[in-house]
Amino acid sequence: MVRDVAFGQYFPAKSLIHRLDPRAKIIMLVAFLVLVFCTFNYAALALVAASTAAIVAMSGVPAKFYFKSLKIIIFIVIVTSVLNLFYGTGDPIWQWGIIKITINGINRSVFVTVRIICLILASSALTFTTSPTELTDAIERLMKPLNKIHVPVHEIAMMMSLALRFVPTLLEETDKIM
After folding, report:
1. Which of 71, 74, 144, 178 has the least CB density, counted as fewest CB within 10 Å?
2. pLDDT of residue 129
3. Domain boundaries, the chain
């Protein structure tokens, strides 16, 4: 079961996204994540979903890897969606005791679900198209200005590299225990 997890694994290919500078990918991912949370209407949400689909298609990584990365978090997505469904305010469409579903609750549920899925897919695109070494080097180079205020940038990057390196080992050990 744990062997099916694809999140955090590098998939070698020759796509446009693979050839981008890792620092640019990290900056674009952060900008995209901010954009995802700035969507407050369905037109913007559709644009974010279409952009996510375009990123996934341009990555050159088979769709089954993206589905595997969603598989990890699907339970959290479902629970969050259901909770948001009942959290809305306004006139109830359906009510049973204190439990009620409103239009606002449905909207919240849709937005949260699509946002989480877009976040996972975009983050997966970064890890699928950037090797752990490139990712660590890019983070270290992006954090280089923090050296001036005595932040141990190299040590932080080394910790991240070690953490990324041991994710497959940790998954393998978890699989053995299960």
Report:
1. 178
2. 94
3. 2-130, 131-178
